Amino acid sequence: MRLFTFVILLSIFFFSCKKDDSNVIVYEERFGEGMYIITDQGISFYNYLDTTAEVINQIYNFTNSAVIENPKKIKFKGTKAYILADNSIIKTNVKTFESLGIASGFLNPVDFDFIRPGDRMFVIDRDDSKLKEVDLERMEIVSEIETGDSTRPISIVSNSYRSFIMNGGQLANYAKDSTIIVVEYRDDLVPLADIIASVEVGYNPNSAVITTSGSGSLKVLCKGIYDPSMPTYNIESSVSSINQYTNEVYSTNILSGIYNAQNLIRNWNNSKCYFTAEGGVYKLNPNNLNVSTVNSINSSVISTVVEATVINDSTTTYTEMLYMNDDNMPNYIYKYDLDQGLIVDTIIVDGNVRDINFY
Predict the structure, then answer these.
(1) What is the pTM of this model?
(2) What is the pLDDT of residues 217-236, one digit of tens each?
């Protein structure tokens, strides 16, 4: 009888172990290098390097059998993708899109940036008017910094030891703020998170890039004030040039005839900048701040990438492409050849486009 009981118990143990092994999920590496599109419906992937590729929609939902609430942005660090969502940051494996952790505790996160040492990020929490530091290994908020009273910060850009936070102002079109906050996050190898300056710039700063002009000056794009229903109150957009090391403001230049300028980005070698505004997409020369029109499509999301075209065995050409959404057709993305000045492809995704990034 004892022998029979022992055999039964051994059989149960064997089969239960075998069942557990069979439940291990193996995630397929379907993604990686390519273009990632954030929409109000989820995340889409497009291998722009493959001329026969098709858009794959809802890649996070499909991989994890879960829905991302209100996705906003995506950025990459190493082999990980980080997704800004409604009140959280989600970490995934960039090749499989398996979820690897979630950091919560935000009211309305709108932007983030990776900082050194390499296991941290700063997250802009707009509704909380705070900068929140997240440990990337533990995916937890480890510190918080007040950016001011109801300043509603909107974006962040960093150099090797400082971060610059743009205070974008209140929601009302006529409201204005004109400050950026400077946070020092590293002293040699010691991690910090200290506010060291508040810098006055143009009205309603919303985005910035670090360029090679002026020994590496910070260019801050300021929206001004724009309300098509109340044109009397409109104020033109501007660009402020700042020394990223001393925080000295070199100048604030009005962009004549341009309103509602946003989404400043730089190209691959920092020789040109692009931004959106009423009336289309514009190019900015970071050295003399001259502005010219790229196209007249109203857009709110832009991103550039250099693409290679093989002509023959010995010749390859490189072209910088501008990918942009269309505010009037919000699920469309246009591939715009900056050399030819032509739209060369159209990509259609599920949902309204909110962000485009490349890995």
Answers:
(1) 0.90
(2) 999 999 999 999 999 999 99
